[in-house]
């Protein structure tokens, strides 16, 4: 059986998303996208936590989208296509969970709305 794994990492000054495919003992990296903040933090002599958080929020959906495209797993919702079942409920749940994430919340909800 083939499985796909989505890995998301926001460590210190990197935002990364990878997609892997496994079949038995065989593992294939379908995509591996990293957005680095090293240059941004260099002027501070190290990682500035609040800046890092904002950059992760700005970059996460962009990196996710690129990784899924590279892996051939992203399909845009056609203009007339019905929304997925229960999307409204999931959207409300995400809005509640991410209530204080002013940058990431609208980006993620827009992404989920635009892609299947």
Q: How would you sum up this structure in a few lines?
A:
With 116 residues, the protein is an alpha+beta fold. Helix content is 42%, strand content 27%. It has a 3-stranded antiparallel sheet with strand order 1-2-3, covered by helices on one side.
Strand order of the largest sheet: 1-2-3
Sheet with the most strands, sense and barrel status: 3 strands, antiparallel
From the N-terminal CA to the C-terminal CA, the straight-line distance is: 23 Å
Taking pLDDT < 50 over at least 5 consecutive residues as the criterion, the unreliable ranges are none
Estimate what percentage of residues fall within beta strands: 25-35%
Global morphology: globular
Instruction: Give the overall average pLDDT.
Output: 88
Q: Tell how many strands the DSSP assignment holds.
A: 3
CA radius of gyration is 16 Å
Q: Structural class, judged by helices and strands?
A: alpha+beta
Number of helices: 4
The string of secondary-structure elements, in order, is EEEHHHH
The helix content, as a percent range, equals 40-55%
- Regarding quaternary structure, what we see is single chain
Question: What does the secondary structure layout of this molecule look like, with pairings?
Answer:
Blueprint: E1 2-11, E2 14-23, E3 26-36, H1 38-42, H2 49-70, H3 87-97, H4 104-114
Antiparallel strand pairs: 1-2, 2-3
Helix pairs in contact: 2-4
Keywords:
116 residues, alpha+beta, three-stranded antiparallel beta sheet, 27% strand, globular
Structural overview:
The chain has 116 residues and is an alpha+beta fold. α2 (49-70) packs parallel to α4 (104-114). The two termini are 23 Å apart. It has 4 helices and 3 strands; from the N terminus they run βββαααα.
